[in-house]
Amino acid sequence: MEFRKINIWYVSSLLISLVVAAPILTVFSSFFETTGNYSLILKNTFLYDYIYNSLLLLLGVLFLTFMIGVGCAYLVSFYNFPGVNFFKWSLILSFAVPAYIYAYSLTAFFENYGTAFSILKNLFGEGNYNSFIPKFDGMMGAIISISFSLFGYVYVLTRASFHYQSQNLIELGKNLGFSKKKSFFKIILPSARPAIVAGLSLVAMETLSDFGSVSFFGISTLTTGIYNAWISFDDLTLANQLSFYLLIFILGLFILENLSRKKAQYHTSSKGGFKSKALVRLKGFKSFLAFKFCAIVFFISFLFPVLQMLYWTIIFPKHLVDLNLIELFLNSILLVILSSIVLIVFAFISNYGNRVSRSKFLEFLTTFSISGYAIPGIILAVAFITFISWFDSNIVNFFGFRSIKSIFIGSIVGLVLVYFVRFYSLASNGLKSGYLKINYSIDESAYLLGYSKFKTFKNIHIPYLKNSMLLIGILLSIEIIKELPITLIMRPFNFETFATTAYVFASQDLLEAAAAPSLFLVLIASFFILITSKYILKD
Length: 539
What we know:
Elements: H1 2-30, H2 37-44, H3 47-78, E1 79-80, H4 84-90, H5 99-110, H6 115-124, H7 138-163, H8 167-175, H9 180-191, H10 193-208, H11 212-216, H12 222-232, H13 236-261, E2 280-281, H14 284-315, H15 318-321, H16 325-357, H17 360-370, H18 377-396, H19 405-408, H20 412-435, H21 440-448, H22 453-464, H23 466-482, H24 485-490, H25 498-507, H26 511-536
Parallel strand pairs: 1-2
Helix pairs in contact: 1-13, 1-16, 1-17, 1-20, 3-4, 3-7, 3-10, 3-12, 5-7, 5-14, 7-10, 8-9, 10-13, 10-20, 12-13, 14-26, 16-20, 16-23, 18-20, 20-23, 23-26, 25-26
């Protein structure tokens, strides 16, 4: 009977991983298929540029998000200074600004005769201001836009980890004679490593799959190559082959992390009990520096693009009046609720299945499947449509059943399913970071008390991970609200969201019109943050 129960969890986790891994397996299988002449031309010309630019972009974004995310998380978690309670939750607002919107705002502000020029002209009169206004374009513009849009992944996960670190760790460093700097690098930072790595992994996958920002700045990356292969040359096989290189990047990151971590344990020891941290009150110049650092990050990541969009909205109020706000709001919220529930439920099942089975194969398959986050949404959508069409023609019709295309293509059901594949990594990694803090001895104690695996899961794990669930819910909500390619391709006819509306205007170079729906996108994201931050970021 016990063996049967174990198999239930194992099989459930296995099936979930296989569903998520299906598009990735499609990408790998297509790597060996033949393509058109464009493939040979690409390999002899632009392929190495795609790989080089993707790698350079990745390294730049990872470095910047690590410095910003960990730095902010450390300051608000261990120190008390003016505005710290405000920054704890407000820094998360950067999630609300998509990287492509940030790119538009960055360019519009600093370009010749842009917003910065207008401000200087109004303040000081006519002048050659363009000569000294900095220009953020190309690779630098993309790194800045993506980093300030994504650093929140590192911040929120590291902040949660820092929050639950015991004062015992800090006192241990003092007893060993460590300085604050040495304690940070030797004790505090290593204990938060799972959360930091999870955050950086999500940043890496988002960066490698970004299309809007890199295309806007004219950077040739693997994603722009994928887009050109499919749209310009109508070669889906080649597009999948280029996606293969994205998967290699991501799988390489996972392998390196697993090798470096080996058998290290990161759960919090219960010895001596948990002792809440005593925040260090900063005074004088140090207090000013901490406030200044957090304030600058908050302004650059959130206020700057929002003010730019607000400026456009005020200057062109007609675009706001023409929006069907109620319909756009209801459509966006519907997708958030349905997709978040599906993702969190199945991520829980998968993580617990891995925990109780302790199967190396299942762990590998799960790691493999979550790398699908690196596949651009546009490829996932097309792969899904292709699979459904094949299944409908070869399986459904063979048995004489009614066609299923209308159920999965151009429907809410299909849209949610593709969201599930796209964002499964976000839900799974978030819960995994929380699970690493639960010592296996807790499970064993529960079994000795007569708890079944399901009862242990329901009565111990779910309550312990409720804050992680809320955190994941926020991240999923914002990502789903911002998602463009999947929504554009998979949505029902005349089904529009704030994101698709903003994109349609932006694709027509009507950036002023895109500002209004982008602002409401920010408002929705801010609402989720405000109502849940007191639970996930409480002291």
